[in-house]
Specification:
Blueprint (H helix, E strand, L loop, with lengths): L1 H13 L7 E7 L9 E4 L4 E4 L5 E4 L5 E8 L6 E7 L5 E5 L26 E5 H6 L5 H4 L6 E6 L3 E6 L7 E5 L2 E2 L18 E8 L3 H4 L6 E7 L7 E11 L4 E11 L3 E12 L14 E14 L2 E15 L17 E17 L2 E17 L14 H4 L6 E15 L6 E16 L9 E15 L3 E16 L4 E18 L2 E12 L3 H5 L1 E4 L4 E4 L7 E13 L3 E25 L2 E22 L7 E14 L12 E9 L6 E12 L15 E14 L2 E10 L24 E9 L1
Parallel strand pairs: 1-7, 11-14, 29-32
Antiparallel strand pairs: 1-4, 2-3, 2-5, 5-6, 8-13, 9-10, 11-12, 13-14, 15-16, 15-38, 16-17, 17-18, 18-19, 19-20, 20-21, 21-22, 22-23, 23-24, 24-25, 25-26, 26-27, 27-30, 28-29, 30-31, 31-32, 32-33, 33-34, 34-35, 35-36, 36-37, 37-38
């Protein structure tokens, strides 16, 4: 870490200050100025908006070649490379379009618009997620194509990408990997939606970019941007959920000058037990506190930002249907999860090349409290300090320091090339009465190179990576894991308006501590787990084909994949019992997953305000022994009609009606049971009005409109026959002061 900080200081010292300003005008095809258009330079993470005359200015920019993106709802997104300093003001003409804005993809290294990306990445803004009535971020990501969640009620959700989850899916937040003991099925996402601007999903092995644990894919959470230059933004949001009688409140402020930026946001959420059509699910209640802050500095050839996030959650763990209350303080058993996330990203610009250095530190504390561990006469007040270490049956503390350095070489003809190193130092320690996994240290190191090659009609991307991981289990044994991985992909327009993406990629995952060393009852899953110290790397190879057709009023896509996983790690019962818990052993077997997504979007002319969207998702997972893999989501079909309102008293207004049809899941693991299908209706209305000349966003949503009784196949409450959430009516507002 000292060497990394010294490198940063040396580079700052030798950076040559360069002051460049650019100006420009944005017009539509009829020559009218376009106001409030978003001007953004993704490589510099700097932007502004056009004024009433359609003009803009960006100050203090380093010399070099950068991508500029101009976007506004109702227009086709403009993207081009510009050389700074400019010889003359920039003039951009935007074409009208009924298609939603195309955004820059941050989770892939070359930061291109999705239409220019070789790898297919799903992207959705947080506003779109919230408009569909999601109670939490974990619940909301299940609306993204190819993504599902393993849930414990509504407070605990774990992402599933094309049938793979837990340590096979890597979560990134603030530009660093999120580490929070994610190996457990009942261990949730651990990140609050407040202060998140958008979500990106890489479906399939991303080990080339992210190393171990990205075998199944990556969920990449983009933090909210800083305020535009010379501005102060204050916003308050609140949402009420009728089903849980719960609130989610957030207050944030951000300001920026030419060189300095600052933001802070605090949020609070509390929910009672959720209500199914027949009963409230006892102890499904949860509470969450969250604080996010950021500080940025940029001048000349150097920019840096520091972000911090504190998240504390109390999560009830339902076991059976009991007393029907609307209390919000969890009963036994429950979890307390606290995370401190500190990150820094710095960039150094050297004309046509640049160096990006990111480091992060996460301290995660996970405690589980059980009824028989509470001291006699002790009052349960609900604060973190009131429970303390003594009352926790399970108390794990995980500390992780990660680093990532990427050097973007100058473009050589048709080649864009990046070389990088990544690594991690991690320690796990136990302080509770029980030990689920032992004290251990993990060390990662990886080196990678990747190139994007531009031909006249084809874009090609290739890459190679080497990783080494050491897991040192205290007072026991040490294991080393190594892996080479590669990826290759191409994008081409085989016909007019038809885009084809074909990607081949390999991935790997070293076995985690639970799989190697478990020896005891896991209360969250009610089984006695035995680790296997002889486990080897999981390795996979995926072929992914995506075909898209689109014009101004019609879009259709088809994505298909086949994912071969060698030495897939899973639990199998031994037939024995320990203290009434069934005994399970970690073993390995080759597996295969296949499926894909289909979708259509129609916005007919001249009814551009009317949208019909439909999508179908399917995934099948089988082992070589012909058993189906566990926790594979059922096939689903979604149909949605959406109406956009013309400009008037309410701006940006829209309404939707959605039908989600989940098919029966009969392809189940021997330890699972089949799950019948069901259909859910939802509807919503949203828009923005002016209050005291400031925008006030309003949102009204009803999910499970018919109050349908159902159980999702990925619900951890399914073995107990407990229904998922019933009808939920929510109201939300967001006011920018």
């Amino acid at each position: 870490m000292k060497n990394l900080l010294l490198l940063s200081l040396l580079l700052v010292t030798h950076s040559i200050v360069s002051q460049n300003n650019i100006t420009g005008t944005i017009k539509d095809t009829e020559g009218n100025p376009v106001i409030f258009a978003n001007i953004y330079l993704p490589q510099l993470e700097k932007g502004t908006f056009t004024d009433d005359s359609g003009t803009f200015e960006l100050k203090s920019l380093p010399t070099g070649t950068y991508k500029i993106v101009v976007s506004l709802l109702g227009f086709d997104t403009y993207s081009d490379d510009i050389r700074i300093p400019l010889n003359s003001p920039l003039l951009v003409t935007l074409k009208s379009s009924a298609i939603e804005m195309d955004e820059v993809v941050i989770s892939t290294p070359f930061h291109k618009l999705q239409r220019d990306n070789v790898m297919k990445v799903e992207q959705q803004s947080l506003a779109e997620i919230k408009e569909q009535g999601a109670m939490t971020l974990g619940e909301g990501i299940a609306n993204i194509s190819g993504v599902n969640t393993i849930s414990t009620g509504v407070g605990i959700s774990k992402p599933v990408i094309r049938g793979l989850s837990s340590n096979r899916v890597l979560v990134y937040t603030q530009g660093i990997r999120m580490e929070n003991q994610q190996f457990g099925d009942e261990h949730g996402l651990g990140i609050n939606e407040a202060g998140i601007s958008s979500v990106e999903v890489i479906k399939g092995p991303a080990s080339l970019l992210y190393g171990s644990d990205a075998l199944g894919g990556v969920l990449y959470l983009n933090p909210e941007r800083f305020a535009s230059e010379d501005s102060l933004d204050v916003s308050i949001s609140s949402k009420y959920f009728g089903n849980t009688q719960g609130f989610a409140n957030s207050l944030g402020a951000k300001t920026s000058s030419e060189n300095f930026k600052f933001l802070i946001r605090g949020s609070l959420a509390n929910h009672s037990d959720y209500k199914s059509p027949e009963y409230r699910v006892t102890n499904s209640r949860f509470n969450e506190k969250d604080v996010k802050a950021g500080f940025g500095y940029q001048k000349g050839k150097f920019r840096s930002e520091v972000r911090y996030n504190y998240n504390f959650a109390e999560l009830g763990m339902p076991e059976e249907i009991g007393e029907q209350t609307t209390e919000k303080l969890p009963e036994m058993p429950f979890q307390e999860v606290a995370s401190h996330i500190l990150s820094n990203k710095s960039q150094f610009y050297f004309g046509d090349s640049n160096l990006e250095v990111t480091w992060g530190y996460i301290q995660n504390s996970r405690k589980e409290f059980e009824e028989h561990h509470e001291e006699e006469g002790e009052e349960h007040e609900g604060e973190e300090e009131d429970h303390g270490h003594e009352g926790a049956a399970l108390n794990m503390r995980l500390r992780t320091f990660s680093y990532d350095a990427k050097y973007h070489l100058p473009e050589l003809g048709k080649f864009e090339t990046i070389f990088g190193i990544q690594g991690m130092f991690q320690s796990n320690a136990n302080f509770g009465e029980e030990t689920l996994i032992p004290d251990a240290n993990t060390t990662d190191f990886g080196v990678l190179g990747t190139s994007h090659i531009h031909f006249e009609t084809v874009d090609l991307q290739i890459g190679l990576r080497y990783d080494h991981r050491n897991i040192d289990i205290e007072n026991d044994f040490s294991r080393d894991f190594n892996s080479f991985n590669a990826a290759a992909g191409l994008k081409t327009n085989i016909f007019k308006n038809v885009v084809t993406r074909l990607n081949f990629s390999s991935g790997f995952r070293a076995p985690n501590l639970a799989e190697l060393t478990s020896e005891g009852s896991h209360e969250g899953t009610n089984r006695y787990e035995i680790g296997n110290p002889d486990l080897t790397n999981e390795r996979n190879f995926q072929i992914d084909l995506a075909i898209e057709y689109g014009n101004d009023h019609f879009e259709i896509f088809a994505n298909g994949f086949t994912n071969f996983v060698n030495d897939y790690i899973y639990l199998t019962p031994t037939g024995n019992f320990v203290d009434a818990d069934p005994e399970y052993l970690y073993v390995q077997e080759n597996a295969k997953l296949y499926g894909g997504e289909l979708g259509i979007h129609i916005h007919p002319h001249p009814l551009d305000w009317l949208h019909y969207e439909a999508s179908f998702e399917s995934v099948t997972g089988k082992q070589d022994n012909r058993d189906y893999l566990p926790l594979i989501p059922a096939n689903s079909l979604n149909n949605m009609f959406r109406v956009e309102f013309p400009k008037g008293f309410v701006s940006g207004g829209q309404a939707f009606v959605k039908l989600s049809s989940i098919f029966s899941q009969n392809n189940v693991h021997p330890e699972e049971t089949s799950t019948p299908g069901y259909s859910l209706w939802s509807t919503g209305l949203s828009g923005t009005i002016r209050l005291f000349n400031k925008p006030l966003g309003l949102n009204f949503t009803v999910t499970n409109l018919g109050d349908k009784k159902y159980i999702n196949h990925l619900s951890r409450l399914k073995p107990d026959g407990i229904f998922n959430i019933g009808r939920n009516i929510s109201f939300g507002l967001n006011y920018e002061i």
